[in-house]
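Write out this protein's structure.
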Amino acid sequence: MTEKFTPTWLVSAIYNLTPEQLKAQGIKAVLTDLDNTLIAWNNPDGTEELRQWLAAMAAAKIPVMIVSNNSATRIARVAEPLGLPFVSRALKPMTKELNLALKMLNLNANDVIMVGDQLMTDIWAANNVGVRSVLVQPLIETDQWNTKINRFIEKGVKKSMLKNHQELNWRESIDN
């Protein structure tokens, strides 16, 4: 039951992923959720830590693409100043837009990683496409109203998933 919600890794924050770790896993690009993964949902300008992380990815020639259920207007407010490509209205956990992201990057599922803060959207979508995934802790503890519903449902799913996968624990990297 919980297999479709089980991430490959649990990492405290997206900013802990380094080009070296990604390359060691054969990862050529990062697909990322937006709110509470890449930025705090209430801070569309991001942080200096975000800009440094993106600079490290760019220097290593590892593209970062936002794949979000948000509107194009909402995502563009963040993505355009950072020079990031994006896919909007992804309807995760459905797979159409995640497959579009792979096509845009001209990469296969095994070449990318999906990073997100929600099991029932980000991780489920990644598993549906066959992409390795990282569940991160939300950047801040508050959420938009619509995400609060998912978080409530997700609590039980996460508890069951962690019980069934005791090898998973929160880490600072994806190093094996």
